[in-house]
Specification:
single chain; alpha/beta; Rossmann fold; five-stranded parallel beta sheet; 18% strand; globular
Length: 125
């Protein structure tokens, strides 16, 4: 079961997304800010995907991304951005964006697509 790390300071949103992903069969871990997320990356099994809010106290999503890029993890971990509509224009290209209020089913579909083997590929043994 692929692991997903949700980095979101809003308790209710974080747990609503976690519940939806858990129902879809994902191993879900949560962090309330970027600092907690960096700790999760170093202390626990590597997630398959990170869902990242940008505006958080202690360490913002922007600060997390700066530190995360320096880790130079291979293979890279895909990051999906969760943000308010006003922040969308500042997001660098290449990051899938989900605007709050979010569609939980759209997030499940995006993550499933990211972690599923390509059609015709042999499963890992």
């Amino acid at each position: 079961m692929p692991a997903v790390l949700i980095v979101e300071d809003d308790f209710d949103l974080r747990h609503a997304v976690a519940d939806r992903l858990h129902e879809a069969g994902f191993d879900v871990r949560c962090a309330a800010d970027g600092r907690e997320a960096l700790n999760e990356l170093t202390l626990r099994r590597r997630p398959a995907v990170i869902l990242l809010d940008l505006m958080m106290p202690t360490m913002s999503g922007w600060e997390f991304l700066d530190q995360f890029r320096k880790l130079d993890l291979q293979p890279p971990i895909p990051v999906l951005i969760l943000t308010a509509a006003g922040n969308v224009r500042h997001i660098p290209p290449g990051y899938p964006v989900f605007v709050k209020p979010i569609d939980g089913e759209a997030i499940v579909q995006a993550i499933t697509k990211l972690v599923s083997p390509p059609s015709g590929a042999f499963p890992a043994v």
